[in-house]
Amino acid sequence: MKVxxxxxxxDLFKRxxxxxxxxxxxxxxxxxxxxxxxxRDFDANLAKFMGVKHAFGVANGTDAIIIGLKAVGxxxxxEVILPSHTYxxxxxxxHLVGATPVLxxxxxxxxxxxxxxxxxxxxxxxAIMPVxxxxxxxxxxxxxxxxDKHGLMIVEDAAQxxxxxxxxxxxxxxxxxxxxxxxxxxLLGCFGDGGAIVTNDDAVAAQIALLKDHGRNDEGRxxxxxxxxxxxxxxxxxxxxxxxxxxxxxxxxxxxAARYQAGLGDLAELTLPPxxxxxxxxxxxxxxxxxxxxxxxxxxxxxxxxxxxxxIQWAGTPVxxxxxxxxxxxxxxxxxxxxxxVMLPMNVVITDEEVDYIVSAIRSFYGK
Length: 368
Fold this sequence. Notes:
The protein is an alpha/beta fold. The chain has helices at 11-14, 17-30, 37-50, 61-71, 88-96, 114-119, 140-150, 202-211, 233-243, 246-264, 296-305, 332-337, 352-365; strands at residues 54-58, 79-83, 100-104, 125-128, 153-154, 156-157, 165-166, 169-170, 178-181, 195-199, 270-271, 282-283, 289-293, 341-344. The chain folds into two domains: 11-243, Aspartate Aminotransferase, domain 2 (3-Layer(aba) Sandwich), CATH 3.40.640.10; 246-365, Aspartate Aminotransferase, domain 1 (Alpha-Beta Complex), CATH 3.90.1150.10.
């Protein structure tokens, strides 16, 4: 039986093994392991790609959010509004700087709902944190209007959004800072953990530079309390190499999404993500292909029997359902979405034939 994995991790290396091997061997031969030229080059190239003044590689995407929040002064007594439809790391980062995560609904596009955000603002609210999930950027006009009306800052978790744009502007560049994850299955993945923080604010950038490296300034003197959160130089070298071909990878993801749309768009039982170029305000890059499906669990079982592996994002648990963490908020829209969400294989090495096989299996399940 043909098996199509949800994400073929080994193929991240195999598809360009010779070139990647040389990149890594070069780092090892020079003993260039911590904060070497590759880190500086990648920071500069990432900033150029995103159109921002400053980019800082850090150890992982969670550290990126924590350091960003600390850099803009969010801490005890503050509230940050974010969607429950996100990974626990988003809310945990708010908690770990001493602030309170306030969870809100997602809209029909699976993104943070601006109207629900506004209903949750209190005198303690300091920031709104849109999460740019699945390779799509939120409606930042709507969120910025709410932020401006109430005097709040925007801070972005764009872990899944690198390369996506709203009205021509990259995810991660709308707020005081934005964060990216380079976890292997992300849009631009390394071979371990990695993350980045980007900003156009010089004062915020100065704080990030201190916080990410033990509070050391350019002279190496410790002038503040900081973290040990440096992007590993080997990973920086890999990422800098892969960034050269990132636009090609984005184009492939969009082609896969278009093929899913063509094959499944007529099924009333499914609600697909927006097709490429369906909305001229959005440029989606399809980190994931997350759709809603009738009889979702039966569909997943059927696909598994045909060798097609799917997942439900974040093990099917939105953040507000982690009652052990003290959440009591009721979010009925998000609850309903999580009974319908499923993600199909979406990556840069999946073939057209494999996509067609998945489409055929889904159509067969629904009797089409």
